[in-house]
Amino acid sequence: MRSGIIGFILGAVLVVLALILLQQRVIRDVEGDLSFRFDRYVFHGPEFPQGDFEQGRLVHRSLFPSRFTTTFYDAQYHEVTRADKPGRYGAVVRMELNGNESHQFITLYRTPARIFWCDTPWSFSVPLPPEIGLNPAVLRGQEPEIGEVLKYSFVGNGNASPNLAILLAGLSETPPGDSPAVKRTNVFARDANWWYALRERIGLAPHYPYLVDLPRDYNADTGKRWPLILYLLTAAERGTDLQSVRRSALPREIEKGRQVPAIVIAPQCADYEEWSPKALSKLLDEVCVKYRLDSDRIYVTGESETWDMATAYPERFAAIIPICGESDRADAARLKDLPVWAFYGEEQEVSSLTQTTGMIDGIRKAGGRAHVTISDGHHDSWNQAYATDALYTWLFAQKRGQPEVVTPGAPTP
Prior knowledge:
Elements: H1 2-31, E1 36-38, E2 42-44, E3 51-53, H2 56-60, E4 66-74, E5 79-80, E6 87-97, E7 100-111, H3 136-141, H4 143-155, H5 162-172, H6 187-201, E8 210-213, E9 226-232, H7 249-255, E10 263-267, H8 277-290, E11 293-302, H9 304-312, E12 319-322, E13 340-345, H10 350-365, E14 370-375, H11 381-386, H12 389-396
Parallel strand pairs: 2-7, 9-10, 9-11, 11-12, 13-14
Antiparallel strand pairs: 1-3, 4-5, 4-6, 6-7, 8-10
Helix pairs in contact: 5-6
């Protein structure tokens, strides 16, 4: 009898331990992608929508403590509890799970009247790309059906997607007569700028940790000022492990022994966030105070964010080195006075190649000069770029506000 009771107790203990271990594994998986959702992002009336964890059922059934608190702000950055006027609102969601804390910043939009999305006719005249492989005549003849499918993909079954709230908020803040938006000024850029201003006010502005590599002789001459390279890494190295940045192309090249006669700053962006040009500009201000650098020889290199940073602040840089990445050709004229040497590879996606070559063509048509190197397919464009000795000679010859200095090894524009 006693042995049976002991066996039952041991079995129960093992089951509980197994459940705890399973819960811990599940929570680890969820914590890395913890997100929040509202039942509506575009709404009518003074009451804000209801929300919960995206993985709500799983989180609430866990054995570990979890909770969220939501604070709402109006378009003028005032904390509010009701949406008394139509327009933009922002929800700052503070999420806690198993002792870990994170924040999510969600755009909401209140309409003046209720909208019945299912009954709203939408007309789409934008043709689908030919690469889709369908007969153009069929696509033209079936535009109403295409519009209906895209409508439901965009707003769902009457429940607007987050992007629709961003679109409406951005359009509500766009003055009549504004030029057609480019990437730097579109509704997503407006939304990012609004959130940056709010996050600064409430003490949650993005601040990027960074790795720094100083020139070998940095401490030998305390009066010397050095060039600065701002290196914007890819999505693969985002997160909270700053040392993972060392595995990225330029820091790895330095780790392998390349002597770069410049201060190299490699910041890290958090998971599930986009680089903020405003936050990066502020980081540059801080670095300029902390290190002895030549403000006329600041360079930026990396993927899409290099184009974004350069078009947002062309006056800050002496030259840029974009590595593949997307860009907005309509904004190319802002870079006509900035030396550019772009790299992209034949192995990259066609859309990325098209974006890069379009930007290069736009700069040239605006009267600027832009060099391009295409990898041969045996080397990725990242490693090829930072292993190119001639690149550093060209880069450090450029000074802010000065005509490009052409050096040996740079491809013909």
